[in-house]
Amino acid sequence: MVTFEETGLSGVLIVTPKRHGDARGFFSETWKRSAFREAGLAIDFVQDNHSLSAEAGTLRGLHFQSAPFAQTKLVRVPRGRVLDVAVDLRRSSPTYGRHVAVELSAANWRQLLVPVGFAHGFVTLEPDTEVVYKVDAEYAPAHDHGLAFDDPDLRIDWPFPADRLVLSDKDRRHPRLRDLPAYFD
């Protein structure tokens, strides 16, 4: 059993798989094609990614890939906690430039489904946090893009001041939304 909860952005869903627990621990089907298809989501994932962030306040993002390698992502946290963010980059969307921020954790067992047309990123809220996510298109460096995490037009309320965030040099140099080409119409 899996539940699908809508967010304020079309196509971005909170997915919560059932956990079956007993004295040994728990078991959970974190991805099941038939459950997604029953919900009208015909996604064929082709790659799994796994990151470990040692420090709380590690920010990864905001990332996306352009066509023909644009990606749908299913993001989960098997250890620790993150604030997971998706930003609508679809120019024709009524929610263009808006974002949703959802806490994902090992405790709440939620996942975030981020469809094509969105930038995605997260900041860790605890040390030694692991993030695992499925994608439906393989990584393609020539189609790899980003959006400035600190773009004031996005109004993302990150839970750490910018000077305390741990970021890659690449993630510090992404353009603002107003400077992005129209990757998704």
TrEMBL record:
Pathway(s): Carbohydrate biosynthesis; dTDP-L-rhamnose biosynthesis
Annotated catalytic residues: 63 (proton acceptor), 133 (proton donor)
EC numbers for this chain: 5.1.3.13
GO molecular function, one term: dTDP-4-dehydrorhamnose 3,5-epimerase activity
Site (Participates in a stacking interaction with the thymidine ring of dTDP-4-oxo-6-deoxyglucose) residue list: 139
The keyword Iron appears for this protein: no
Alphabetized UniProt keyword annotations: Isomerase
Statement: the UniProt record of this protein carries the keyword tRNA-binding: no
A biological process from GO: dTDP-rhamnose biosynthetic process
Cellular component aspect of the GO annotation: cytosol
Subunit-level organization: Homodimer.
Function statement: Catalyzes the epimerization of the C3' and C5'positions of dTDP-6-deoxy-D-xylo-4-hexulose, forming dTDP-6-deoxy-L-lyxo-4-hexulose.
Protein name according to UniProt: dTDP-4-dehydrorhamnose 3,5-epimerase
Organism: Salinarimonas ramus
